[in-house]
User: What shape does this take?
Amino acid sequence: RIPLVIAGGISGNPDLATRADSAAAGLRPYHHYFVDEFARNVQLTDAGIQRVENALGCENLFDAGNLPVLTAIQDALHARVLLRRGVDYIIKNGSVELVDEFKGRIAQDRRWPAGLQSAIEAKERVALRAQGRILGSITIQNLVGMYEQICGMTGTAATQAEEFRRVYKLRVTVIPTNRPVIRQDLPDIVYADRGARDRAVLEEIRKTHAVGRPVLVGTASVEESERLSRRLQMAGIPHSVLNAANDEAEAAIVARAGALGAVTI
Assistant: This one.
């Protein structure tokens, strides 16, 4: 989904990114802009366009000469409205680090497109780093497709068999387990709201921890894992938290996760 890129040269205007962020900070939803969460898009209204033009001192935001300004404003709005700290990225050692949405770890050496990366840095008041221009890019699918022979093995291929067939022309074969599976896959439980779900999760952790069984709790984001951690602290349940903010400690935390009474988020 995320292309590999070759970047080089310098692009972008740090001062413009800072000014655009200040202008975007004063915009109000449904008055100055509309948000389409499903399409991951944010769009200025007429009132928003006028306010931005006044704030940045440009007569017509859509003049060809103002294209860099329009782009910077769109990036600043995207950064403020659609990207969440603790979900899409974290601040670590004074810099913005992207979180891999599938693995929950820091995406090493990955950046958003130059203008958006600068917009996030301006939003979070961290040092704006020089951004490179994208000189070339290729998707993982196209790169892998260049090989004459492809094979592989993974524990999650069966659920993506159709994608392997369609994209790579590969057939997925399931290798059965050596011994019968004794794990019980219980049906999902749906709660009316997040509060009810959190109380149920806390009670389940408390009961399981009381008999000494190790507990592993999965969360959808760094923000969610730290919120649950605070609730466990209030309940007096010792635990470890593994997320993108401390992924360098992963091996040590996982090594203790199966110990008697261990609780790992």
User: Anything to note?
Assistant: The chain is about 35% helix and 15% strand. The beta strands are 4-11, 33-36, 41-44, 89-92, 95-98, 131-138, 215-216, 263-264. The mean pLDDT is 88.
